Structure formats: structure tokens, C-alpha cells
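Module 6 notes. Inverse folding takes a fixed backbone as the condition and produces residue identities as the prediction. Think of it as a translation problem where the source language is geometry and the target language is the twenty amino acids. Below is one complete input and output pair. Work through it position by position during the lab.
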């Protein structure tokens, strides 16, 4: 309730722009885009989401401002979600989320993405996967080589307990929401 100087009283509902824990799980991509824009604004890193390679076949024009793609197809299989550069090193990563409480299913990752991540590693790039467990509202940084090794061993899923023991928890913060550069600094630059 707000009491104004003229005697009026007005009730209002407080609205916060902070994402609730239930909404954050749905918004991993939004959180990463916000994080990447934060890095770009502070001149820390240049990382962008890759566009999906599609070929537009048909567009409906009910009027100029309402153009709508009605038919399109994938030109090639997309590689990973994000790439960029940080401290002179190439970054390439995939972002995934799961609603499972017990594991991350490998059905969420495609063979060509695994091959791509390995090629980035072979060229001395920094390759990783960010995986969010929506049920626990936890986001993990997984070194790509670790994920690749498991992918070829199990081909089914990675238990949640593996993430707790072997991956790097990325704590949620407001600015930036998914601060993965702190982990990259620990893994690649604090040793130099």
C-alpha cells in the first residue's frame, strides 16, 4: 500500500525482474545471451549464438510488416550453439538442459556435435558444454573432452551424481547469470 501526499492510497503488486528459480530453467539460452552481452559490454570476451543454418523456401506476405516464413529446411546440421574468443583462445560450446532428476540423456547431443567439439579441442580451442538440471536449478560447466569420453563409453546418459563429482557448478548471479569465464580462468589461465 502506498500513501500519497494528497491522501490517496493505492495497492500494488510488486514485480521483480529477477528470474524465479522455476523460470530460470526454461531460460538457459536467455541467461547465456545476457551473460555474453555482459562480457561483450565489458570487453571481456566476444561470444555469440550461432544462427541455425536454414534455407527459406516460402514466405507469406499478408502485409509488409507481417512477413511470415511458411516453409524452410535445414541446409546442414548445426554444430554447437555458441562460439567466440576469450584472451586469444577460441571458445566453442553447446548448451543443454534437462528436466531429469537422475541423469543427462545423451539423446540430447548429436554425433556431429561430438565430432565438432573434438575438432575444436584438436585445434587447441576451449570446448565445453553447459548443462542445466532444471529440477535442481543447477547449471554445470562440463569439459568437452570429459563429455566426449563418456559419450563413447556409455552412449546412454550421464548420472546426476557424476556432475556433482566431476563437473563445475556455475552459481547463479544477476550479473552475469551464467558466469562461465570464471571456470575457464581457473582451468586455462591461472596455471599460465
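Target side of the pair, the amino acids:
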Amino acid at each position: 500500500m502506498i500513501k500519497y501526499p494528497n491522501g490517496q492510497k493505492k495497492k500494488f503488486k510488486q514485480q521483480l525482474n529477477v528470474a524465479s528459480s522455476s523460470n530460470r530453467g526454461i531460460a538457459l539460452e536467455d541467461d547465456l545471451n545476457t551473460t555474453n552481452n555482459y562480457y561483450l559490454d565489458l570487453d571481456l570476451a566476444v561470444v555469440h549464438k550461432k544462427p541455425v543454418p536454414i534455407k527459406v523456401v516460402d514466405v507469406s506476405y499478408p502485409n509488409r510488416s507481417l512477413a511470415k516464413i511458411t516453409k524452410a529446411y535445414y541446409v546442414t546440421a548445426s554444430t554447437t550453439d555458441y562460439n567466440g574468443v576469450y584472451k586469444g583462445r577460441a571458445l566453442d560450446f553447446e548448451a543443454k538442459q534437462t528436466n531429469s532428476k537422475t541423469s543427462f540423456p545423451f539423446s540430447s547431443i548429436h554425433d556431429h556435435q561430438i565430432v565438432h567439439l573434438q575438432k575444436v579441442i584438436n585445434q587447441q580451442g576451449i570446448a565445453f558444454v553447459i548443462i542445466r538440471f532444471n529440477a535442481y536449478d543447477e547449471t554445470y560447466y562440463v569439459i568437452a573432452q570429459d563429455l566426449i569420453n563418456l559419450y563413447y563409453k556409455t552412449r546412454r546418459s550421464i548420472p546426476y551424481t557424476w556432475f556433482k563429482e566431476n563437473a563445475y557448478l556455475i552459481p547463479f548471479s544477476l550479473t552475469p547469470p551464467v558466469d562461465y569465464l570464471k571456470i575457464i580462468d581457473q582451468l586455462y589461465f591461472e596455471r599460465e
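Reference fact for the lab report: The helical segments are 21-24, 28-41, 111-122, 144-153, 160-166, 181-189.
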